[in-house]
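Action item from last week, closing it out:
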Amino acid sequence: MNDTIAAISTAQGVGAISIIRVSGEDAIDIVSKIFSNKKLKEAPTHTIHYGYIKDKEEIIDEVLVSIMRAPKTFTMEDVVEINAHGGINTTNKILELLLVNGCRLAEPGEFTKRAFLNGRIDLTEAEGIMDLINSKTDTSREMAINQVGGKVSSLIRDLRDDLASIISNIEVNIDYPEYEDIEKITINHINKAIKNLEVKTTKILKESKNGEIFKSGIKTAIIGRPNVGKSSLLNRLIGEDKAIVTDVKGTTRDSVEATLVIDNIILNLIDTAGIRDTDDIVESIGVKNSLNLIENADLVLFVLNYNETLNAEDLEILDKLKDKNYIIIVNKTDLDKKIDDSNIKNAVYVSAKDDVNIESIGSKIKEIFNLEKIETADLTYLTSARSKAILVKVLKEIDEIKKGISLDIPIDMIEIDLRNIWNLLGEIIGESYDEELLDQLFSRFCVGK
């Protein structure tokens, strides 16, 4: 944290502009060594300066240099950003000069890590920055903005404040029993506080599943017997011929994956091998994988043929789907009807060949996941697996406290468990952490961010 770091903050490649970012105590001094405008050291904060980057007498590039002095910067350190022409060689040369003159190459996410360590942002806000960079839809972007802006952190801070109030009261009751003007905390008080904490935590966890849908998408498996049109449906949905389509049964032997966005919904589509009994070893492995995907998918698109009767394999798959989110897609409506669909529910009738009624699939997905309602709600969700795992631990701790209360454990012992929960919630926002956690979290960032 005492050294000065530098990195290219724009995507590598040819472009109009590239930005090289420098942060640290010596940021301004180091950039001054290679910048033609010698008044840089005296420049006021948040100003832009024109000049040349030079390697001794050789001009490397014509640039604009932005000066931002601590503490009003992203890292809360002195920050300099060099806006250069966006060529690979020129950008790398400027970075090389910075390293030669005293900078260290930043690690992935190190600028954001410094912002966290210096108190500029908390851990949830840092994760929101990564989500914002990776957002693929307007909804996931809005969720990330709420996280970066501190709305998600406020949910956790409110829980901690409620706990801190009751913990402090318990401690005063124990240490200063003579203080009569301090409320006496009883088991009834703790029961009420624990119930309130449990309700709020469960609500946050439940709603975080909605956030996961918008952030990471819906893992969607397309399954069915051979030649019902699974690959044709995939190709029609994504608008390109990604899956091979033939009249030969067993053409698809391995999973074919694609990503599709329908009305702000990310569908991670997996076209699977046709499910049937087969003596072909390779195809049988594909069939086994298809059956496993039914168990692991968030949504199953079960494709049937309008021109064929149901068989035992179809009925077996229908039985496997009864506890899953699924849509039955009856394909090939351009052919004569032979299917007995009297007992089929939740079906969409399409013709992948003629592009008929394909858009109804998206509408049905929104209906199943209640996405219309979710999209109009306040998109303030915890989206990281780390945070959700901690909340699961919180609920387990709450169960332990409830067991303790039922066994008449003294309040001072319960206070220890309450403090454990308070510390767990602190891990979500980074009030408590270990270096290994930070290294893992920020290593997912790109260099220069």
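Closing note: The chain has a mean pLDDT of 82.
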